[in-house]
Amino acid sequence: MLDELKNIPRRNLRSLINKLETKNLGAVLVAWESNVFYLTGLPKPSSSYLLILRGENPKLLVPALDYWRVSDSVKGFEVVPYASYQMPAVEVKVLTKKLHEYVVDELTSRNIKSLGIDLSYTTLLGSKVESRAKEKGIEVKDIGDLITDMRSIKSDEEVNLMRMALEITEEALWRGLEIVKPGAKECEVAAEIEYVIKSRGAEGLAFDTIVASGPNAAYPHAIPGTKEVRDGETVVIDVGAKYCGYCADITRTVVVGSPPPEVKKVIEAVNEAVLNAIDKVDDGVKAEEVDEAARSTLRKYGLDKYFIHSTGHGVGIEVHEKPRLGKGSSEVVKKGMVITIEPGVYLHKRYGVRIENMVLVRKNRGEVLNKRPNII
After folding, report:
1. pLDDT (average), residues 194-215
2. Residue 1 confidence (pLDDT)
3. I need a labelling partner for 86 at 20 to 30 A (CA). Which of 18, 126, 220, 366 fits?
4. Residue 3 confidence (pLDDT) above 70
5. What residue spans in the chain does CATH classification 3.40.350.10 cover?
6. How much of the chain is helix, strand and coil, in % rounded to 5?
């Protein structure tokens, strides 16, 4: 694990604990997988949960089969393995009580009367603990938005990890472009891109890779298939690597052969919308104003009716985070956020065009993190 990644969760956890003291919470249960990673640095914390009891070392509740991996990966936590049975020939005591009962029993044994749970991230354990805690007279507060707000502002170390994720992603995408030619299958291009991502040291994908050609490119969430690329078609490629737990997200549109004049104009209009939206990025600007900057550009060319999604979103541990840059969004863009700018035009059964960059919000400007050109 990188030294940067070791320091990030420690700082995040200290910050959360300090905030909880001001909210007079005696304990916290963090149940959403991405939030557990954010506060512990535990790689792939599936079915692992963080229990913070004021004044004590935080407890990590982990599946018994992950006990050694977790114990060797993170320090400063009491690791509590759980399973439905005791593991034979193992000296580690395994918790066999139901987790929601264990959590609430820990609270009642300490006479804790208030509990915070990240309830706005829906999990079965969070719901069960909430119900049982209320039965025992314990006040439950949702701290999901608190953690969401914390996660939306990236530290310099987090941004560095995202820069690396993006560097890997761009290299992989450009390697994939080398085989985008008539006769290439969408799934073959996707496979080449994903191979490069894994071989460059990323742990995986931030989301399922999109390679969509011709009419398929008009689907914003197209699935790569066996369709072969044809001469003159647009090909939309949307891909992101995940590096040390942090995501990248980039989209480019290319044309195989010479682009038809209409398509060339649409690509140029979408690129202009990207640039105008980026120019609008600033600390304190309303998210919907960034969206309108892209939308009004496409409106100028009569293309806004084909722009059917938001202009962008936050990126971090998850590929979609706060804020949402779209119509009606009440959120505000803040310094330290990493956002995407990704307007698109989609003509059903004909073609689609989307260009997407990652932007770090700074005071008075947005810093484009991408190093490769928008138009290829």
Report:
1. 97
2. 42
3. 126
4. no
5. 3-150
6. 40, 25, 40
What's the Rg (C-alpha) of the chain?
23
CB atoms under 10 Å from CB of 63, counted, come to 15
**Helix H or strand E encompassing 24:** none
Q: Reduced to 3 states, what is the DSSP secondary structure of residue 100?
A: helix
| 240 closest CA partner among 154, 184, 171 | 171
Instruction: Kindly compute the dihedral angle of the four CA atoms of residues 129, 130, 135, 138, in this order, to the nearest 10 degrees.
Output: 100
Q: What is the mean pLDDT of the chain?
A: 95
Q: How far apart are CA 375 and CA 266, in angstroms?
A: 12
Q: Which of 17-26, 274-283, 355-364 has the lowest mean pLDDT?
A: 17-26
* Residue whose structure tokens are 């089969």: 65
Q: How far apart are CA 208 and CA 113, in angstroms?
A: 43
Per-residue pLDDT tens over the stretch 141-175: 999 999 999 999 999 999 999 999 999 999 999 99
Where, residue-wise, is CATH 3.90.230.10 in the chain? 156-368
CATH topology of domain 156-368: Creatine Amidinohydrolase (3.90.230)
CA dihedral angle for residue 164, residue 193, residue 244, residue 331, rounded to 10 degrees: 80
CB 355 within 8 A of CB 251: yes
Nearest C-alpha neighbor of 354 from the set 312, 292, 320, 299: 312
Coil/strand/helix, residue 357: strand
Measured distance CA(239)–CA(236) in Å, rounded: 10
The answer to whether the beta carbons of residues 355 and 342 sit under 8 Å apart is yes
Sign of CA dihedral 140, 144, 149, 155: positive
Residue 239 dihedral angles phi and psi, to the nearest 5°: -150, 155
Do residues 211 and 190 make contact, with C-beta atoms less than 8 angstroms apart?
yes
The tokens describing 165, both together, are 């994720």
177, 256 in Cβ contact below 8 A? no
| CATH fold group of domain 3-150 | Creatine Amidinohydrolase; Chain A, domain 1 (3.40.350)
Q: What is the pLDDT of residue 4?
A: 58
